[in-house]
Amino acid sequence: MKNNIILLFILLSSSLIFSQVKFEANVSKNKLGLNENLRVDFKMNMDGDNFSPPNFNGFNIVGGPNQSVSNSWINGTRTFSKTYTYFLSPIKRGRFRIGQASIEIDGDIYKTSPVEVQVTEAVESSISPNSSDTLLDDDVQLVAELSKSNPYLNEPISIVYKLFFSPEINVRNLGEVDSPEFKNFWSQKIDVPRLEIKRSSLNGKSYNYVTWKKTLLYPQKQGKLEINPMTLDVSIDLPTNRRDFFGNVIYNQTSKKVSSKKRIINVSPLPINKPDDFSGAVGDFEISINSNKTQLKATESFQLELKISGSGNLKLFSIPDLIVPSSLEKYDPEFSENVKVGLSGMNGNILNTYTIVPQFQGKYPIPSVKFSFFNPSLKKYITLYTDEKIVDVYDGPVISNNNEKIASSNNEIPSSSAQFNFIELNSDFTEINNKSFSIDNKIYYIIFTPIVLLIIFIIYLKTKKNSVSDQEKQSEKAKKLANKFLEIAKKDIDNVDLFYISLEKALFNFLKYKFDFQTSDFSKENIKLKLTKKNISNDLVNDLIKILMSCEYARYTPGNPKELKVDYDKAVEIISNIEKS
Length: 581
What we know:
This protein is α+β, with helices and mostly antiparallel strands and 581 residues long.
């Protein structure tokens, strides 16, 4: 009897264990690069309904949800497994949490545990060489071209990012996902006026390419410096084996993140035999000093310009100071620059303009100014000197040999005791009548306060009217653009791909001009957040998200023609309801 009770207890425990519900989230990796995709599996051991995924903050959904079911019997024991799979593409670097998914099983709600995922900078591709993704990698490549990889400290180098792509594919849109920060470099972006397609070869293969970004760099630290990869999000049209009615090739649309390789710069230190006055100038320079006057009277002013011109790090060092005789009163200099920045470096000049006032007669020498710099082409330091200038000051006070001031032939210098006699020392103030002042004040406020308030009120009404008018114009523009693309979608209702492209454009342009959306804001999470803040109902927002997901899925999966009319009518209804609300 005792043995039977123990056996029964074991059987009941085993049954309880096997009937326990398991619902968990698994990721393909907990650390991935910005250019990699992440697979997330939500797996359960019992069938359930009403599956609800998390928001996937920090990621874009590029595939899924895919559903798979496994049901098997082994030695009389049933094994069941059901999985929802998503493929995610990271938006930016950082540490992200994949939230809880939920499922209803036998009337109870079960949730997965959150999963932490770290997104790092782009990594080298680890895809199998024979996969289709690798072929696409060969067709689209981002290359960072360096003008020099072994510069001196403060010697200019340039980095140019070029996107190479096969002539057989079309690149539609480019977006910068991750940019290098250029740590330990002084950097200056060089404008690229427009993306111009050119032809070149890469690794012995012919490519089209566009220049995406140019940057001038001046290394500020010696040793090995890293430049992290840049990552672009590229929208691509891939040719298929199908052709349309007119014989033109039909393209499939896809997107891909491409990254440049990490670059290493070996920065050489400057030679140790630096001149005493060396202030960090590296390049090829000239120095000059110019005066706007060579003869003047005492107490008149003249200007001296100390200019450094040439090519090099003109914005990264100071101009030497100008030393003048003590009898010349020197004011702080006015700095100005005329520097052009290009891929070859900085070119132009910088100068200090000094205003100088002589106090006495005489011929005053302006001493030579010393300036030293390092020339990387010659690999040595060079020291230059300015020419000495002579300024002739006449017709004013003179200095005797014993350094005492004496009167000039035309003017006498007043003695120290009498030189301030022209200033009146006794005041003739009268007392202000406070009472009278107070009464005048009150009258002033009584008269002018209503006028000021009236002016403020009129300005407010005018501003409010203009604001309402601008909103109405924006709303009307939003409706016109939406209707335009809805009409195009209606005409393309027999073509699944073109229909959903036009439908998505209609919704995007409506949101853009109605709620001031930007292209970067056009994600499901941002749309939901922004429309909720505008007091749009959750049901209406969810219907909009579903339509956008239909447009997105149509890019990767064949659509059902019967659903096109339903989606079209739903889109028209959503735009109308949002406009009303």
